[in-house]
């Protein structure tokens, strides 16, 4: 082989290596852009959804956190709303909203981001794409569960402060203080791990709830696409599995997802709220109740009704909130391209 031929081969190999590196860099940049889109779209959708639902969430937390050893303060959601509004006005129902708005931005963006990452991981390993077909519903449900488990780690500290802010003011409690003072108090009494008090409840709720959330949305969306394909194909190109649905169908799918998310694992959220609304200054490391201990106490004293107290108003506010979240997210993603 001549020297010029060897040089040409080396040059070709170098060019190929440069092409591979450039391709990998382009893929990394594309993944980074997609992640940024998830963060922006998810955060925006989460904040708007939280503004819609927050007063109902305050009522839910107050119903869930009523003391075991005292007569019930509220007879139901309407009574709780009426008493809260009379005592504190609308601002009382929105007290502590800053932490939840921040939490909603993190939660929703994290859910959509990790949901997409989980899908890509499955397609790259166990379920490679075939003929451009999407993942089966069972795989999407599993991706939703992974997404929820990851998000729970970010969400527990935020929900701890939110729940402490939402319970009614009392002269002897820390509840009602600003978020920074509550953060300082939790750290002073329980250290860094104190912010993850109630993590098991959040993990159960988010893992199962997110599987139901994404699973319900994908199921209803698939159902709508299945029934509209014969109609649309007769007027033009056949729609794909990723073709956007009309807004009303997106909202109905999102509302179904919100109801599924909140109803199925609601008892775990009730127990978590009980744990997180303890007065942090009066609970030492040794006396903090576990998730199971709180659940057993609640079951023994109030039964299934106690575990589902506030569920009606939660499901009622979740339907429109989740509908708006999915519509806003899908709309922004389509707008960004």
Could you explain the architecture of this structure?
76% of the residues lie in helices and 0% in strands. The protein is mainly alpha-helical and 337 residues long. Helix 4 (137-166) packs across helix 6, helix 6 packs antiparallel against helix 8 (266-276) and helix 8 packs across helix 9 (291-307). The radius of gyration is 24 Å and the shape is globular. Residues 18-24, 171-176, 233-237 and 280-285 have low confidence and may be disordered.
Explain the layout of strands and helices.
Layout: H1 3-64, H2 77-93, H3 98-124, H4 137-166, H5 179-190, H6 199-233, H7 247-264, H8 266-276, H9 291-307, H10 311-336
Helix pairs in contact: 1-2, 1-3, 1-10, 3-4, 4-6, 6-7, 6-8, 7-10, 8-9
Computed structural class = mainly alpha
Radius of gyration: 24 Å
Determine the fraction of residues in helical runs and give it as a percent range.
over 70%
Low-confidence stretches: 18-24, 171-176, 233-237, 280-285
* Pattern of helices and strands: HHHHHHHHHH
Distance between the termini: 51 Å
Number of separate strands: 0
Q: How does the overall form come out from the CA principal axes?
A: globular
Which key features would you list for this structure?
337 residues; mainly alpha; 76% helix; globular
Offer a quick outline of the entry.
The protein is mostly helical. It contains ten helices and no strands. The longest helix has 62 residues, at 3-64.
């Amino acid at each position: 082989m001549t020297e010029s031929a060897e040089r040409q081969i080396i040059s070709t190999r170098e060019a190929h290596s440069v092409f591979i590196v450039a391709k990998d860099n382009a893929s990394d940049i594309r993944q980074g852009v997609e992640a940024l889109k998830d963060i922006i779209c998810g955060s925006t959708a989460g904040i708007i959804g939280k503004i819609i639902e927050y007063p109902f969430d305050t009522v839910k937390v107050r119903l869930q956190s009523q003391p075991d050893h005292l007569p019930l303060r509220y007879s139901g959601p309407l009574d709780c709303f009426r008493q809260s509004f009379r005592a504190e006005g609308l601002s009382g129902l929105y007290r502590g909203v800053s932490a939840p708005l921040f939490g909603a931005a993190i939660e929703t963006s994290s859910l959509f981001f990790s949901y997409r990452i989980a899908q890509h991981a499955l397609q790259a390993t166990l379920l490679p794409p075939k003929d451009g077909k999407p993942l089966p519903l069972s795989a999407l449900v599993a991706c939703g569960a992974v997404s929820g488990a990851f998000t729970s780690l970010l969400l527990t500290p935020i929900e701890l402060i939110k729940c402490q802010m939402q319970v009614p003011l009392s002269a002897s409690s820390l509840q009602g203080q600003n978020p920074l003072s509550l953060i300082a108090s939790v750290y002073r009494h329980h250290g860094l791990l104190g912010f993850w008090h109630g993590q098991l409840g959040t993990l159960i709720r988010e893992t199962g709830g997110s599987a139901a959330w994404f699973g319900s949305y994908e199921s209803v969306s698939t159902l709508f696409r299945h029934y509209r394909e014969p109609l649309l194909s007769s007027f033009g190109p056949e729609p794909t599995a990723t073709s956007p649905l009309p807004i009303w169908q997106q909202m109905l799918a999102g509302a179904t997802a919100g109801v599924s998310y909140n109803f199925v694992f609601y008892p775990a959220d009730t127990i978590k709220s009980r744990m997180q609304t303890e007065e942090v200054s009066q609970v030492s490391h040794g006396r903090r109740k576990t998730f199971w201990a709180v659940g057993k106490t609640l079951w023994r004293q109030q039964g299934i009704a106690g575990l589902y107290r506030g569920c009606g108003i939660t499901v009622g506010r979740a339907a429109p909130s989740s509908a708006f979240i999915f519509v806003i997210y899908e709309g922004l993603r389509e707008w960004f391209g």
